[in-house]
Amino acid sequence: MATIDHKAELARAGAGVSGFWGTAFHLARRYPLGAAGAVIVLLFVLTALFAGYLTTYDPTTTNARSSLAKPGPDHLLGADFMGRDMWSRIVYGARISLAVGIGSTVLGCFFGVIIGLMSGYYGGWLDLLTQRVMDILQALPLLVMALLMAASLGPSLTNTIVAISIPIIPNVARVIRSNTLALREMPYVEAARAVGMSEWKIAFRHVLPNTMAPLIVLATAQLGSAILTEASLSFLGLGIPEPHPSWGRMLSESAAEYVRTAPWLVIFPGIAISLAVFGTNLLGDAVRDILDPRERS
Amino acid sequence: MGAYMIRRFLLMILTLFGMSVLIFVMLRIVPGNIVDILFDSAGMVNPDDKKRLEEELGLDKPIVQQYVTWITSMMKGDFGYSYVSEKPALDEILPRIPVTAKLAALALFFSVLFGVPLGVISAVRQNTSLDYFLRVVSLSGLSLPSFWLGLLILMAFVQYTGWIPIYSDQPRGFWHELWLLSIPAAAVGFRASALIMRLTRSSMLEVLRQDYIRTARAKGATKQSVNYDHALRNAVLPVVTIIGIEAAFLIGGLIVTETVFNIPGVARFLVEAIRWRDYPIVQSLVMLIAVVTVVVNFLVDMAYVVLDPRIKYES
């Protein structure tokens, strides 16, 4: 796959951009939706990092007196049945969501890259075998696979990350494999082999770095669905256990009965999930447009 | 083409075999075996009873033999017994399938009804404000969790009508049932139509870049004719494959939506069975879902071979 020299191309377009901020500003003008996504994701990350500074209440401390308190000056977004402050829980929930989202995406990509690279580079029976295993891992819908894994491993933060990372592996492995298949025929790989470089070194030093662009595209796309899968698993009571404040879990506690009596318990966590996923999806689309020349129009 | 079909069919069988092994192994590496769990929940401690139960369930045999027993009895239509109700698993699963199937069909219908035309409009009007608007709508459709959408719908009903449209086992006639099902189907279908819309748009854009479209424009065909006679016909083909992806996508949506709306279908039953640790049910249901998705994808591949004259599979 041909890579694009962005600087050269931007200069040719007469944009005359220089430096990090210049490039960022130029990209933001060209991809306004992506810029909006980047801002949302940045806010999401900052919220997770500085959760302690943004809240006055502890997200897990219960308080019988403020049970089901309405949104007001004391509790900005109200309080749940156990009197826990919703704003604190949503702010700390960003940590859980981000931890599971990034954790499972990174884990899935790590194994996906190794499997895809080996399978595409070495080929033969190894390729045939891994392809069949990937077929099997892809045969089940994302949520069902994650449910099966969660049921088998038991509910905990680490297990949720592992459960969600498993269905990501085949998606990544497929893309990396097909890229590797094309790359290993490249003249520079042949040149590296001619000067006596070991196959192992060629695979990691010359082939792997050139699969980075599609990997970044795929990883940002997977991040949103990982966050969404965590929310669904926790909503079903099979993801993040108590007392961690997970957005999906908050909806399962409040779900049916609070639809009538305490709508704020249903509305705010849902907005948090949707906004986080929407932001990553917007960013993911823009990243794909920037890095994948075939999708350009 | 025949050879390709046979090869593809054998691959499907191989995938299903691998799937069955995976499901079997996953459900047996559970911390503590099933008998321990049953004993813990029943509060029994007599080791003789425990041994008898293990023998009864065949858990004292080697794992390979257990697997073979499971597969062979499943081939004969014996799916084991539910630990919870002690009824045959098949008797628990089969009556729950029709509701889920109706819901899935309705959701698929909605998603094609809205997804395909909106995707075409978005592509034809590429980079106009209408296109931007439709893209934001479809992307937000993919970002809303369907269980939250379901809860919002319920909330709107409570707010404006004061009652909740809950699905009952005995709907009054066809139209009543259709009405009760179309509400949750809309919740599932919204996400699904967002997906179809995005894929239709990119498929349509791809076709609009082709040489024969330029030729059609050059020979003076009207915009209408180029877009609909030349482009849409060719763009619809890849959309057929989407139905394969949709099948997997819909099942995920059905699981949470049936839970929100309390619909007694198979998708919600899977979640309940996992919570109750009713492994014969979980095992059979996950296998059933695997069979459905794998077979749908196989049929879609076959349809593609038949429908697209450009594809010739030699080997």
Explained architecture:
The complex is a heterodimer of chains A (297) and B (315). Chain A is built from 13 helices and no strands. Chain A has helices at residues 6-12, 19-30, 32-49, 51-54, 86-122, 124-138, 142-153, 157-183, 187-194, 199-207, 212-235, 247-261, 264-291. In chain A, helix 5 (86-122) runs antiparallel to helix 6, helix 8 (157-183) runs antiparallel to helix 11 and helix 9 runs antiparallel to helix 10 (199-207). The mean pLDDT of chain A is 83. Chain B starts with a helix and ends in an 8-residue tail after the last helix. The longest helix of chain B has 39 residues, at 223-261. Chain B has helices spanning 2-26, 34-42, 47-56, 63-75, 89-93, 97-124, 129-143, 146-161, 173-208, 211-218, 223-261, 266-275, 279-307. Classes of the chains: A mainly alpha (297), B mainly alpha (315). Chains A and B meet through helix 6, helix 7, helix 11, helix 12 and helix 13 of A and helix 1, helix 7, helix 8, helix 11 and helix 12 of B.
Task: Give the topology, please.
The complex is a heterodimer of chains A (297) and B (315).
Chain A: H1 6-12, H2 19-30, H3 32-49, H4 51-54, H5 86-122, H6 124-138, H7 142-153, H8 157-183, H9 187-194, H10 199-207, H11 212-235, H12 247-261, H13 264-291
Helix pairs in contact in A: 2-3, 3-5, 3-13, 5-6, 5-8, 5-11, 5-13, 6-8, 7-8, 8-11, 9-10, 11-12, 11-13, 12-13
Chain B: H1 2-26, H2 34-42, H3 47-56, H4 63-75, H5 89-93, H6 97-124, H7 129-143, H8 146-161, H9 173-208, H10 211-218, H11 223-261, H12 266-275, H13 279-307
Helix pairs in contact in B: 1-13, 6-7, 6-9, 6-11, 7-9, 8-9, 8-11, 9-11, 10-11, 11-12, 11-13, 12-13
